[in-house]
Structures are given as C-alpha cells and as structure tokens.
Amino acid sequence: MNTIIQLLNNTGFASLTFDNVIMLIVGALAVYLAIAKNYEPLLLLPIGFGVIIGNMPYMTGLPVGVYDNLASGNPQNSVFSLFYWGVTSGIFPPLIFLGIGALTDFSALISNPKYLLLGAAAQVGIFLTFIVALTLGFDYYESASIGIIGGADGPTSIFLSSILAPKLLGPIAIAAYSYMALVPVIQPPFMKMLITKKEALIRMKTPRKVSKREKILFPIITFMVAALIAPGSITLIGMLMLGNLLKESGVTERLAKTAGNAILDTATIILSFSVGASTQASTFVTKESLLIFFLGLASFCLATMGGLLFAKFMNLFLKDKINPLIG
Fold this sequence. Notes:
This protein has about 325 residues and is mainly alpha-helical. It has one domain. It contains 18 helices and no strands. The longest helix has 29 residues. The chain is globular.
C-alpha cells in the first residue's frame, strides 16, 4: 500500500489543483477555437497547447516548467525556460518584426500618407487605458504595458512588457494575442454601430503607382525619423524596416523569403508556445490577471472606435472620401 501511495505521490495527480484544471480548460478552449473556428490558428493553437503544457502538474524539483532555471534555485535550466528566456530577453519579437517587414507592402501608405493619421487615432485606446490602469493601482510601467494591448500587436506587447513589467508578461501576452485572434468577433459590432451602410459602400480612389525608388527609400527614411523621435523604437522599427528593405531592394530575394517564412514561422511558434507555457496557474489565476484582461479588452475596443470615428471625421474635409472601415 505504501508503495502505491509513494508511486501516486510521484505522479502529476498528487499536485493537481483546481486552478490547474481551470487553466487546462482555457488551453483546450484556445486550441478548439484555433481548429474549429479558425480564429488566428497560427497564434492561438501554439499558445493554447503551451497553456496545457505549462499547467500540467509535476513533481517539485523536476526541471520542466518555464520558471525552472538556475536563477530560481534549480540544479539546471529546463528546456522550456531557455525558450522563455528568448521571450523575456526580447529576442523573438524583433525576429517576428523582421519577418513581417519582409512580407509587407507599404505602397498604399506611401501613396496616401494621410493613412498615418488613422493609425495615430487608433492609439487613443492605449492612452485612455493607461489612465484607467493608473487609477486602478497599477504603476506607470505596468499601465503602459497594459495599454499597449490596444495596439493589436502581440510582439510589441511582449517586447514592451518584458522591459517594463516582466511579472505581467504572461497575462498581457495572452490578452494581446487572444484579442488579436478574436478580431472577427470584437470589431464587427462597433463597425455596425458607428458606420452607416452608405459609408461602408464608399469606393476609394485607386492609389497611384509607387516607384521602386520610393519603396527603397521608405524603410530607410522611416527608420531614421522614428529612431530620432523615439529612440526606444530602434529595435522593433529597425528590424521591421530591415525586413521591408530586403523585400523591396530586389537584390536580396532569398533573404527576404527566409525572413518572411522560416524565421517568422520559427519565432512565432516558439514565442507563442512559450507565452502559453508561462501561464502557470500559481502565477496566472489572480485578480490582477483578470483586471489586465478587462483593461486589454477595453483598450482594444477603444482603439477600434477611435480609428472608425476619426475616419468619419476626416471625410468631412476630404474630397476623395475614404472608407471608414479601414480605420
């Protein structure tokens, strides 16, 4: 009998808690949404499976979880802790930006610089949520990290949080990627509420053709201007524009394909999985995490409304109307 009890104590069942069960259900739900509903499967599936792996109970002292490393007193670093180090150190987000840049065509923005105003207006959600988070007791760094969820940019949320509020990285990253995946659910109600049928049917003027010289100069000039205005953006904007320059130069096609496919996919898999695995029940199921999810949703909704309403405002002064839905 003692042997059986000892055997059970060495299994995960002995450490299974109610919080673990909750998180396992959350992970399974994320996987279901990715497969059955096709909600951002490239992100939600590895995140969901990471949540499942990160919340499987195991014997204390076994180097398995993302937090089991030498710094926490373990005899060795777990493999998952090394993956997670790539997240907390800020390595993976810039690699993802490199790949995104290699896949992005900025022709529409170059031919219509006024679209920059739409992007700026959408950031209203970030600033309003920052203020609300401060009133709820979060400090300046934490509030900034929470507010950035409204930018609908998972890698940026992770990069900023890893620097300003590392202890909130897990819930912020999960919130950011979850709301990105749920864009088809979150945004349509606001579109129907704020945009008339007539506005939704606006056919925009075909943008002018952008020359190759403009496409090459754009990433170089954009990076220099952004770096001078906000030096903190050098890492992410630099990698984004490097990827775009590889694409538009016409002489580094192989590098552009590698950045936009192999590097982007690899970084996305490891980052998404690591973020999911970091949501261990002991550190994730807290009142603070629930507040972050609520504030993140508010930031996302406010950003959506800001872009839509500002597009309507711009149309009051434009001869060639723009469709507010692009806001």
